[in-house]
Design brief:
The protein is mainly α. It contains 5 helices and no strands. It is 59% helix and 0% strand. The longest helix is centred in the N-terminal third of the chain and has 16 residues.
Amino acid sequence: MARVTVEDCLDYAPNRFALARLASIRSYDLVHGARPLVVCNNKEVVTSLREVAARKIDFDRQLLMKPRAAVLENEAEDV
């Protein structure tokens, strides 16, 4: 895939807003050390969209995970 577009990814998310939410959550994870699920040499936002287009991440599974704020609070309590 030479270029990933929002239209490529809309088939795998309920709507544009859900896609933006999914990409932002995944981009946050990538910035904070998560390993990419696809091989590419792009910035985190593009990598997250490539993962959606490659069906490596799913809207329902990603958003059912524990909220980021809860994870950060638990890490702060452990220190």
